[in-house]
Amino acid sequence: MPKGKLKGNAFELLIVKTIRKAVKRKYANDVVFRTPASGGHWKIGGADITLEPALRKIFDVDIECKHQKTIKIHSFFETTKQFKDFMSQCLENCFENGGNPLLVFRGNRTPIFAATTLDALKALKFDDLAKHSTPGLYLRFRGKIWKILLWKFIIKALKNKVD
């Protein structure tokens, strides 16, 4: 298996573990798992992470994971083709599964970031994350305003929702 694929698989498993840890008080471990064939499973849809219906009731997202060698900060401001492709893939997953878009990404030796629409943050009842008081970058893509923020903010909001 190519090194990049192994890195992507490990990253998806890390995301699964952080979600499991955030919801462990209320949900069993099997409520979230890495999609078999990572996004290519014919029965589940294109998302990289699968959430069971019980968890989707409070965290209805379709998660696309990307671990890149490097993340260039200018890609957030100029919205490079690669970043647009990532967001497009994330939106396509939503059309298949009906959830809210959530792109989770990182580079080597960088924090984990999340990108989603302001509408999604509000639908998830993560209103505080949608506000300007939560640090993040804003961009427009396909007629929607997206916010890029640290993944740990999403996880903290999810944990607070469960507790």
What does this structure look like?
It is a single chain. With 163 residues, this protein is an alpha+beta fold. It has one domain (3-162). The protein is built from 7 helices and 7 strands; from the N terminus they run H-E-E-H-E-H-H-E-E-H-H-E-E-H. The chain has helices spanning 3-23, 53-56, 74-78, 81-97, 118-123, 127-130, 151-162; strands spanning 32-34, 49-51, 61-68, 100-107, 113-117, 137-141, 144-150. The strands form 2 sheets. A 5-stranded mixed beta sheet has the order 3-4-5-7-6. A two-stranded antiparallel sheet has the order 1-2. A hairpin with a 5-residue loop joins strand 4 (100-107) and strand 5. The longest helix is centred in the N-terminal third of the chain and has 21 residues, at 3-23.
Which key terms come to mind for this protein?
7 strands; 163 residues; alpha+beta; five-stranded mixed β-sheet
Can I get a quick summary?
With 163 residues, this protein is α+β, with helices and mostly antiparallel strands.
Helix content: 40-55%
**What is the count of DSSP helices, taking H or I runs of 4+ residues?**
7
Oligomer: single chain
Helix-strand string: HEEHEHHEEHHEEH
- Total domain count: 1
CA radius of gyration = 15 Å
Mean pLDDT: 88
Q: Helix/strand/pairing class, anyone?
A: alpha+beta
Low-confidence stretches: none
Topology:
Blueprint (H helix, E strand, L loop, with lengths): L2 H21 L8 E3 L14 E3 L1 H4 L4 E8 L5 H5 L2 H17 L2 E8 L5 E5 H6 L3 H4 L6 E5 L2 E7 H12 L1
Parallel strand pairs: 3-4
Antiparallel strand pairs: 1-2, 4-5, 5-7, 6-7
Helix pairs in contact: 1-7
